[in-house]
Amino acid sequence: MTDVLTISRLPRAFDPALGDETRALVPELSAEHGELIAGTAGSSPYLKGLIEIEKAWLPQALQHPDQALTDVMAAARALPADQLKPGLRKAKRRIALMTALADIAGAWPLEKVTSALTDFGALAADVAAKAEIAALVRRGKLPGMTEDDVQSAAGMVILAMGKMGAHELNYSSDIDLIVLFDETRFDPDDFYDARQGMVRATRNFCATLSEKTADGYVFRTDLRLRPDPAVTPVCMAMEAAERYYESLGRTWERAAYIKARACAGDIAAGERFLDGLRPFVWRRHLDFAAIQDAHDMRLRIRENKGTGGALSIPGHDMKLGQGGIREIEFFTQTRQLIAGGRDPDLRVRGTVPGLAALASKGWVPTDVADKLTDHYRAHRDVEHRIQMVHDAQTHKVPQSPDGIERVACLMGISSAALTSDLTRRLAEVHELTEGFFAPGQSAASVQVQEVALDKSILARWTTYPALRSQRGRRIFERLKPELLSRLAKSAQPDEALLALDGFLAGLPAGVQLFSLFEANPQLIDLLIDIVGTSHALATHLSRNAAVFDAVIGGSFFADWPAQAALQAELAGALAEETDYETQLDFARRWCKEWHFRIGVHHLRGLIDGAQAGRHYAELAQAVIAAILPHVAASFAQKHGPAPGRGAAVLGMGSIGAGRINSQSDLDMIVIYDPQDQDMSDGPRPLATRTYYARFTQALITALSAPMSQGRLYEVDMRLRPSGNQGPVATSWASFTNYQRKDAWVWEHLALTRARVVAGDAGLAEDIETFRADFLSSSRNRDQVLHEVAEMRARLAAAKSPAGIWDAKNGPGRLLDIELMAETGALLAGSPQRDVHTGLDGAVAAGLLDVAQAQTLKDSYDLCWSVQCAARLLSGKVIEADKIGDGGTAFLCRATGYEQVEQLQSALQDSYITAAGLIGSVIKEGEDGAQH
């Protein structure tokens, strides 16, 4: 079996005589290989020269091309320093000849050809750089470095950029490199000597590669992609480069780093540098502003290179011209920049893999990705043939008919076929990409419906922070006709305009959001819907506009994934971050997006209030469970691992019962089990009680402290044993002892809704077992009812209802019915937490009959629907005459009533009926207790 070069296509000789002459130099070739040599040499003067030089090596290489490639690489890697220049040039000659013949013959696919060229480029840079580093070390010019440091290039990092980084090097390409050095390898006092040595080594190794000698050259090198190349040295400290990108990096540099790869020198240091640059390249939000940046870049290239105008094949630039390679690369990279910050699967270097990843995630239609992939490969074939003729670093189709014929001959087709195919492909690439890069072209055609919108409101928009920048105003002006058109179509245009005005006034910046709307005009309808309905959600949006990113993800309107999937998603994302504050900020942004999703689903009627309440609760539980291990790990770095079994978070009240609204805080108790340990073991050990108290404070801070992305949740710890007078964290032994001996009846009632939401699994199981056993204990019914009556009276005195729309406070409302359900659960010994089951417990305990329990269930469901909807509409108790038509319609839709007056009447009746039922039960208990 042999791996002989297999031919699937053959070139034609532009000059048959020259082809035959060259073929005669290698008579031992097979007939088919002879035709390949004749056609190639007869069309390419450059390759003809290589064949003549390598005629002795070529026959065996064609019989075993893969092995020949491996041998050339190995020989280059082993070159002694004094043979580096001629040895690398000889290797390049053979690599160039073998890849050209394999490419022309169709034996290797494009990716194998470009990978062979790229791998040799990396090898050449590596051996040349390390040879220079070795020389500097021997001469003592790199302070503190020894021969042992040569293998890692003494901290020199060579980053491959562009096609070199993506393994897409073209046939006669130069290599784009950024050279850095790890300054931490050197004593700070030696920094300037080290940098001087690294600069010298960089210049010398680049000269080794790019100088043209009698043996030719290896690669032309280009170092201009480094930060601010006009004023920076050719080799920079990594720390200086990081500072530049963090403060001054531009969109084109972000795009360049999509393909960046540590290819030579200290690979490990290079990978650390690229990993640290990830937040610069991959923005957390969907970066639709990158579209305009890329479009502006394309226009500048067209202007500077003169590649605009009508399509003409002679002289057309296959790289930078209309419909060319760069159009496909920009199209791919820009979409990667838009979404890659949110989806790591899109962070691939190659153009073809990038298109495939974008298609698989729905960012590019599959047929578009397939077409662009096909055109990209075809364009690269033509580009390679153009360069193979004279080994010229050009991407332009020759101007002359003979020049075009030579390229066609190398492709084995006629010049007419080449011209026709190129015309079709270039035009289609231009058509597929131009619409994406020219945003706002259709905005002028939008016809605004004739509605008399308040011009004084429109006039003040330009004074808002989001419209103060020139770029923000420019994008908004393109967006404005579409925005006003959709406003005009809303049910109440004037009301919607006022709401939109409030939203715009609250926006701190506009470029990103306006770009998002421009690229996704369907979001405008959602915005108008939100601002015209929910003031609270609109206010939240203006402060957290990045949550709109979630709508574009594709699954925004999919079914709810449930808590386990949410927790796994957040835990996986947090595990990828190493910085604690970054983890907390990410959790905030992630939580806000899901929180927004629940609100929009509720607003649009995709879920009802009960489902929304469950979703909000599952989201909160997922956040606590995912974030707790990171709080523990951060705390353990200072004070050591948690003593004993660790801690568990016991959710109380609504979070324990699995139903909260959009603005609920979280009632929690932290319970820990130190077992027999009285101190932690760490750099700064703490006594067990102090350890868990401070750990609990760290958890509260992690959840509630305002950060750049806001806060997660407000936390209420007042339900812990002894309330505010007790320790902030409670030991397992103290908790059980307190519940058995010292707890008030109201604390036993609270236990009916408790649920462990995070923490040690064994401790959580013990807590639940204790809770179930404790609640099943028999109790004095009259005493419980007497204390419930007192508690009900205290609640009524502390907080009276703020009107008919306050569905939470007051007799016959949410808290009152929940108290009745907790009483029923306690007296029935039921471990279930929800209100309906608690009311069934009241039936079992003889407090209610089945009909009465059902009445209270119906009342509770109505109150919850109103409360959940009201919290989405406003941050405080709503007033029906101030929530607007949109808010009123949502309130009616959420509760199943046609008119708000009907809802108001039903609420009033519900309060009276429920209050009467509960009052009669409590009074009966009080009477029993008095006898």
Detailed description of the structure:
- By secondary structure, the protein is mainly alpha-helical.
- The strands form two sheets. Strands 1, 2, 3, 4 and 5 form a five-stranded mixed beta sheet that branches.
- The model is unreliable at 439-450 (pLDDT under 50).
| Rg | 36 Å
Separate helix tally: 40
Largest sheet geometry: 5 strands, mixed
- Taken from the alpha-carbon principal axes, the silhouette is elongated
Q: Which residue ranges are poorly predicted, with pLDDT under 50 across at least 5 consecutive positions? A: 439-450
Relative helix content: 55-70%
Oligomer description: single chain
Percent of residues in beta strands?
Answer: 5-15%
Distance between the termini: 104 Å
Mean of pLDDT: 88
SS content category: mainly alpha
In total, the number of strands is 10
Quick overview of this protein structure:
By secondary structure, the protein is mainly α.
Characteristic terms for this protein:
single chain, 931 residues, mainly alpha, five-stranded mixed β-sheet, 60% helix, 5% strand, elongated
Outline the secondary-structure elements.
Blueprint: H1 16-23, H2 31-41, H3 45-53, H4 58-63, H5 65-77, H6 84-104, H7 110-138, E1 156-160, H8 162-165, E2 175-181, H9 191-210, E3 221-222, E4 235-237, H10 238-248, H11 251-256, E5 261-265, H12 267-276, H13 278-281, H14 289-305, H15 325-339, H16 351-360, H17 366-390, H18 401-411, H19 415-437, H20 455-460, H21 470-488, H22 493-506, H23 511-519, H24 522-531, H25 535-543, H26 549-552, H27 563-575, H28 580-603, H29 609-639, E6 646-652, H30 653-657, E7 666-673, H31 688-704, E8 715-716, E9 729-731, H32 732-741, H33 745-751, E10 755-759, H34 761-775, H35 781-798, H36 814-828, H37 835-844, H38 850-873, H39 884-895, H40 900-930
Parallel strand pairs: 2-3, 2-4, 7-8, 7-9
Antiparallel strand pairs: 1-2, 1-5, 6-7, 6-10
Helix pairs in contact: 1-2, 5-6, 5-7, 6-7, 7-9, 14-15, 15-16, 16-17, 17-18, 17-19, 18-19, 21-23, 22-24, 22-25, 27-28, 27-29, 28-29, 29-31, 29-38, 32-34, 35-36, 35-40, 36-37, 37-38, 38-39, 38-40
